Amino acid sequence: MDEAHPVESGNIQAYQFYVEMALHLHCKDCGEHLELAQDLKEDEQECPYGIWQKRRAKAAMDLGWYVPPLTKEGSLVAYCLCPRCASNKNLKIKRETSDD
Question: What distances in angstroms separate CA 20 from CA 3, 7, 50, 90, one per listed residue?
C-alpha cells in the first residue's frame, strides 16, 4: 500500500467533479492519457455536464482509473492514476452500482 494515496478511490461524485474540471485523465505517475471529450456531441460542447459528465465519469471508473476521494470539505484532489499504476499500488476502485 502506498501511504500517499487513500486505498479506495473516490465515489462517482469525485469522478464527475474530475471530469467537470479536466475533460481528460492524465496519470500522475506514468503520464498515460485518456481523452474524455471524444464523444461530446455538438449540442453539449458549451456545457459538457449532466448526462454526458455522468457517463464519462462512470466509464473512467469502470476502466479502472483511480480518482482520489473528495476532501472532507468537498474539494477535488487534482490528480489521478491509470489502471496499471493504481493496480501496482494495490489501490481499489469503487464501483458505481446505480444508474442515476
Answer: 27, 23, 10, 27
CB 32 within 8 A of CB 24: no
Which residue in 85, 37, 93 sits closest to 67, CA to CA? 93
Look-up of cell digits 456531441: 41
Residue 97: per-residue pLDDT? 63
Nearby residues of 12 by Cβ (< 8 Å), 6 or more positions away:
54, 57, 58, 61, 94, 96
Residues of the chain with pLDDT under 70: 1-3, 39-49, 97-100
In this structure, the strands spanning 24-26 and 33-35 are antiparallel
Biggest alpha carbon distance in the chain?
43
Prediction pTM value: 0.84
